[in-house]
Design brief:
By secondary structure, this protein is an alpha+beta fold. It has two domains: 92 residues, Nucleic acid-binding proteins (OB fold (Dihydrolipoamide Acetyltransferase, E2P)), CATH 2.40.50; 184 residues, Hypothetical protein af1432. The chain has twelve helices and five strands. Strands 1-2-3-5-4 form a five-stranded mixed barrel. Helix 3 packs across helix 6, helix 6 runs antiparallel to helix 7 and helix 10 runs antiparallel to helix 11. It is globular.
Length: 311
């Protein structure tokens, strides 16, 4: 695993190639700059002697068995790649080469299906089922972002299920909330990220992601689905409003602010779930009684790891 690499060690490892870029040395000799990844992290690599065969072996979004030397470059490790062999793996096996949700994906899938079953309005349920099916299997594997929160395999699913459980608890306290819109909004709110980020293993902002964004993408998807399924006009509008307002404020990317109770709750729990994920990551390796590093996505705050009481 990348996290176990030691300086000056010679390693043979199966790694996923996130990106490949061609470079030229000061002596006009071509080389490859390769970003490798496995479930424990990423590492940069250089292939200094490049052959025609290397162009077929070191290809973006492939798994390669790499023979390399681990060297120190600045404050980080880097691979001096000696050779490589392309491997053919199934999609399920490929997902083992990226950081993933700590929660079992099948358990998360079951939870999502359960909450879909809790939507009792037949028209709203029809829209949700239609769009979930349309986005399978990507919905089970995509991250929720490229950085900050849930930025790993099945992060989108983990984020969605966490929000659904929070929505269920809130709806039990405030029974006047309409679970049909609330659950539908949670399930659909970030589905546009599948188009926005383009790739579960090597997420990046696609052309559509940059020009439209996941909010506009999903609003259009809902409008199209509602038209195709002949959904009541008000229901179609309210579902679209859930998506358009879920970032809460216009300065945070919402074209409109929440104007229904369910939209207000959706924006609040989306923000809560994302922030708690960021704080948990910041505190993951912090000893009791110490502060974390600054978290850029949370106003550059540091977070304290409380001392647990001894029983």
């Amino acid at each position: 695993m990348i996290k176990d690499f030691k300086e000056n060690a010679e390693v043979v490892a199966k790694l996923f190639i996130v990106n490949v870029a061609k470079g030229i040395t000061n002596k006009s000799v071509p080389y490859l700059n390769i970003t490798f990844q496995d479930s424990s992290g990423q590492i940069e690599g250089r292939k200094w002697t490049v052959t025609e065969e290397d162009a077929d072996i070191f290809v973006k979004r492939t798994i390669v068995e790499v023979h390399a030397q681990v060297i120190k470059y600045g404050s980080s490790f880097q691979l001096k790649v000696l050779s490589g062999k392309k491997l053919e793996l199934s999609t399920e096996e490929i997902y083992d080469f990226a950081p993933s949700s700590p929660i079992d994906r099948r358990s998360l899938q079951r939870d999502l299906v359960h909450f879909m079953g809790e939507i009792k309005d037949p028209e709203i349920k029809k829209v949700v089922e239609h769009l979930v099916k349309k986005n399978e299997p990507s919905i089970w594997s995509f991250p929720a972002a490229t950085k900050n929160h849930h930025e790993y395999i099945s992060g989108l699913l983990e984020h969605t299920v966490g929000m659904l459980k929070c929505a269920e608890a809130i709806a039990n306290v405030y029974p006047f909330l309409d679970k049909n819109y609330l659950y539908a909004g949670v399930i659909l709110h970030d589905l546009g990220k599948i188009i926005e980020l383009g790739d579960a293993l090597a997420p990046h902002y696609t052309t559509a992601g940059k020009l439209l964004g996941h909010i506009s993408i999903m609003q259009a998807e809902i409008a199209e689905a509602c038209h195709e399924l002949n959904i009541n006009e008000e229901k179609a509008i309210l579902l679209q409003h859930m998506i358009l307002s879920h970032h809460g404020q216009k300065e945070f990317g919402s074209p409109v602010t929440p104007l229904t109770r369910e939209a207000e709750v959706l924006a609040a729990i989306d923000n809560l779930d994302a922030r708690l994920n960021m704080i948990n990551k910041a505190l993951a390796d912090i000893p009791e009684g110490e502060f974390s590093q600054r978290v850029p996505g949370l106003d550059n705050r540091t977070f304290y790891q409380p001392t647990k009481k001894k029983s």
